[in-house]
Structure prediction request, 609 residues.
Amino acid sequence: MLARADTFTRVAAGWLAFIAALAIVGPVLPLPDFAEADFEAMGVGVFSPGHLLGTDSNGYDLLANVIAGSRLSLLIAVVSVGIGGALGAAIGIASAYRRGRADYVVNTAFNIVLAIPNLVLGLALVAVLATTADPSIPVAPARRVVVLIVSLTIVIVPILGRIARGATLSWTSREFVVAAKTMGMKDLDIIRRHIVPNVLPAIYAVGVLAVGVVIVAEGALSLLGVGITEGTSWGAMISRVRGEIEYTPHAMIVPVVALALTVIACNQVGDYLRSRLDLRESRL
Amino acid sequence: MTALLALRDVSVAFDTPRGSLQAVRSVDLDVPAGESVGVVGESGSGKTVLCRGAMGLLTTSNAHRTGSVVFDGHDLSVAPRDVVREQFGTGMSMIFQDPMTALNPVRRIGAQVSEALRVRLGMGKADAMARSAELLRLVRIPDPTEMLRKFPYQLSGGMRQRVMIAMAIACRPKLLFADEPTTALDVTVQAQILELLRDLRRELGMSMVLITHDLGVVAGNTDRVAVMYAGEVVEQAPTRALFARMRMPYTEALLNSIPKVDQPSGQKLQVIEGRLPDPVNRPSGCGFADRCPYVQPKCRAEHPPLAADPDGHLYRCWYPLGGAR
Prediction:
């Protein structure tokens, strides 16, 4: 897949693989506990002894936090894009294949959801879903994560659903779909064997881009105070130190750089996949 | 003899913003078992719509088909979708003009050819692959087992069309619709494909509807010809009779528009001047009146019905070539 990629794309793909690997093996790495403060080294800079990326003003190790944060950030992004992509693709393909009134309703619904800015929609959904009857009892952390994932999934569904719908519309009008019909194939077989394999690459490409979007959205929601409260994510880290940028700027810079690099890498890889897709079409 | 496929009073209309577009108007056509019927006409004359309409493939919500389509004893015009689909593949199947778009670009040839066998005949994967290789051999593809592993873009146009034909005949259909099967191919390959279709029809006892704009293609490959113009059949006869004695000025014009080898160089090619009548607001008279070299006042005033010669030669003209009416 990456055989003919340029250096930038290779580096981007390498970075994503590196971050994913760190997220997975993080707990077994010889690092300080991300939730335990080192009171003897509060706010030390990068390359301090025992703290490779330094600590924030409360003495939390930044490297341990970035790695632990990548787990939650990537989990939320990958799960919501995975579920949202699968759901969006299913809806988009089915409605474009059926055409007619059902398709009109689906397309209108997608457009309405797309018209609402991502962040506003996510914020509203979290605010509605992650509440308890008694405001003094905080929402359980696990439920917050689930609500965050559900909200971001709802944001993703129309983005990928529209891509799937558009791709399906163009592939359904191809002659080989008519040919499959003239051979007596059932609609479900045609969709499974002819439509889905052609639509999936577009979904993958936009899906990788969407992972970047969701990582940013998660960070933004944290900053707005509706993100992760227990545990840590990149957004939570940025949110936690936002008042201390003058005293320990590296505590802000470290998670921001990690987040920015990952989002840039997602965009690069997504763009590369998309360009490969166009290439394959034009080669025919 | 009862026909394998009998179209009676088949019309196809599309709703458009300008009004109802009559693409096919009240066509009667019989395809007897084992015979090959040519449908000829220029672009936009309704050949393809007729054929897709007959198969029930016009599924867009703005298409309307009326009339009856009886295939092999089943009235497809009233049958539910499942019954119509039962006829596809094993009863009738279709090959297309452009083999480039008629194959799925992301799937291997083997998967595509064996698909109909597995879905329609319930064959296992290994059996279907073995049979696919046989089919490819049947359509004269060298080294079939190697071919099964290739992707469509690795094949030439002629090879792709052979693969399409292999797919279409996989389930031994009784009737094959060939929608301009050679238009996208170069001339030498055209001849090979037509010869292949001729051989396959003989070997499998298959009927064929050959759609083309080329009377030359019709001449050697069909038993009967229906000439279409502006959605109507304007002349229909056994192929020999048609070429021996054309009755329609349109058919004559169509034949004259084919360049001849012995024509002196530098001479202009013959064309049929003018255009097809507007399919939404049709003129009241003969649709060909504005382009016909023999036009008379009656042609513009009244629409000619189909007339028949004693030998069954049908034509739609007030003043047919060779006189009488």
